[in-house]
Structures are given as C-alpha cells and as structure tokens.
Amino acid sequence: MNVPEIDPSPGIDTGKMDRKIWWRIIPFILVLYVISILDRINIGYAALTMNAELGIDHFLFGFISGIFFISYILFEVPGNQILARSGARIWLFRIMVSWGIIAMLMAVVRTPLELGILRFFLGAAEAGFAPGLILYLSFWFRKEKIAKALAVFFIAIPLAMMIASPLSVFILSHASWFGISGWRWLFLLEGLPAVFFGCAILVCLSDLPEKARWLTPHERAWLGTHLDGDRVKEATTQKIPFRQLAGFPMAIILCSSSFLVGLFLTGLLFWFPQIVYSSGLSGSVSDTGMLVMIPYGLSAVVMYAWSLHSDAARERRYHVAIPFFLAAVLLLALSLSLPHGGTAAGFLILTGVIAACYAAYAPFFALTLEIFPPDLRASGTALVNTTASMGAFLGPVIFGLLGGQITGPVAILMLGLLGIALMVCGLCLLRCRE
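Above: the chain sequence. Below: its structure as tokens.
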C-alpha cells in the first residue's frame, strides 16, 4: 500500500514549531555543554590547593592542563564524522558517560604523571563533543535562526565559569570529609553530572527532526525539506577529505581565527583564577571566585545580544570581524598599559577583551556552517574546532612558561602580537569571498 506524501508547505505555523524545537533542545544542550566546560576547566580551581600537594610547578601545570587537547585534536574530526553517520544520541551518550567516569577518577591521583594521563584520556573521551553539538544544532535550526541557537549554546562557556567560580571555591573551602582534600572532592562531585546527563541523552534527544515523535508529521516533513540533516548524514565520508577542505580559502582564515581565539581564551580559562589570585586584586580564594565571575558574566550578555543582532541582520562576516577589531585594540591597549602598573585598569581591559572574543563566537560558527556544503560540513566544522583545540593546548602551556602572569615583558609582547594577528584575521574575513 502506498503511503500518501505529505505536503510540507501548508498549515505549518513556523513560529510555534520553532518555539517547540527551541524549548525541547536548547536548554538541554546548554546544560550538557556547561557540564563539559566545567569538567574541562575545574583543574584551574583545583590547582589553588592541588599543585602544592602534588608538587606541580607552573610549567607542569600548564602542560597537564593543555595535554587534554592533544588527544582531543587526534580524535575530533573522526569523532564528528562518526556522529554524523551514526546519529547524535548514541555517540553523545558514549562521550559524556566516558568522560564523566574519567573526570571522577582524577580524584584519586597520587602523582602529576597520573593526573596528566587522565587529562589525556579525558580529552580523548570528549573529542568531537563541541563540534558534534554544533553540527546537531544545524540539523534543527534554519540559517536565519542558527546564530541565536549557537549563542545560547556558547553562553555555556562563560556560564560554566560563573558556576565554576562559586561552586569550586565552595567545595575547596568546605569539602574535607573523611580527611580527603577538597580538590579531590571537586573532581568527584563535578564529574557525576556528566554520567547522569549522558544517560538522559538517550531519552531527551532525537537524532533528526524526521525521527522526532514530539513534532507533527507535517512539521517533520517541512523540516526535512528545509534542513540538511539527512544530506549531511548520507554525504559524510569515512575518510577525512583534506583535499576538498583545502579548496576553501575561507577555511584557512576560519582555522587561523579559531586558533588565536582558542589560544587566548582557553589559556585564560585554566589560568585566570591563579592570575587574579596572585595579582593583588584578590585577598582570598572566595574573593578570587567573585572576581572571576565578572568578565564571564559580561561575556554571556554581550554574546547573546550580538548574536541576536547577527540573526536579525542575516549577516555574519562583520559580526565576527568587529569583535575581533575591538579585541585587537583592547589587547594593544593592555600591552601598553601593563608596564605602567594599574592592575585594576588591566583587569577591566582584559574583561573587555574576553567579552569581545566571546561576542564573535556564535556568528563565527554560523559562518562556518554556511561556508561548508553538506558533504563537508561535519569534517569542516570539526577541522575549525580542531585548530581551536591546537591553540587551546598551547595557551595553558604558554601561560605556564610565563609563570602564570601577564605582566612580564614577554607576556606584554605576546598580547600585542595577538592583537595584531586578530586584526589581520578580521580584515581577511571581510575581504575573502568564496
């Protein structure tokens, strides 16, 4: 018997459908990514007491923090290809449960070597999670809606810092049960949610709109004709298409930009608590937690507002380039002001740089999704995120080599060079046309 084909155009209230999709997917995805960032960065707070107990110096801490991204880089592109071909639910479930278990195991390490090994496996377990979620959102949200969805998704990064600051400081200060150090409880308690919510993925998420029973048949059919989920799944190859990706000039610019932003922002994610604690602005661990919240709270607001503007204007390049230019100017100002002291002024300028970089996040990845065709979207998105991970590995290591400070002459020079590089990337984004 032939099943009658559903006409995908009449009787569709797209506003109602979009709201249904939004509230079904976005809050849950946001929670997943917050947990991901929390388990990735909580080592920065644990270091306030852990480093002395395990005998970890500045360089070793930077390396242990960054080694997470070595394994992340190795498995990121293949991981995203597996997600595209096999479906999001099972693969995201595997990722979250495995990294949650590894995160909790860090509570029992006795040496820096054991900690470094577990950080390496943590990166391998989480590989493909962020680009996988970005790709997953593109299966549900149309081009004119995707930047807003990505903005709320990426708000997880500053939001995780806002949650991590008071939560981690509270655990460090109050959790000393059974004679076990607070930093060990921190890893254990903050690793548990990954296992719980990883299991919840199997219940809460659908792979594609066509499989979502909470949508009407007309809505499923309409989305199937307006989104690329099936085409991405069918066209994604098992091999990494380096030759095809290299044929996109814009891909080089996107990768260079993500590398620079990853280097700067991720280096700060791990080192910012220690930078603030040793700067003189903070007199205690609790004060440090409160101060760290300020730039990330501002970033969350700016990121969301700027992404809404990008969607309303249906424009991406300027919405990436302008924050890059602002961050570049502020970095140059910071490099010029630091030799003359002014710790409070430096903190405010650094807050502006962080907010500007985060403002570019959602338009940047919306542009990334638009640049690559369906057959290269999974690999291209993962490649851009992989280069960000390369920067994310170097960032903590470089901060470690600088002794966890940004006031020395080498650090000041690097801030200035980073500002110039971001300005160049912004100009290239505006000039390059595929």
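The CA atoms of residues 3 and 217 lie 13 Å apart.
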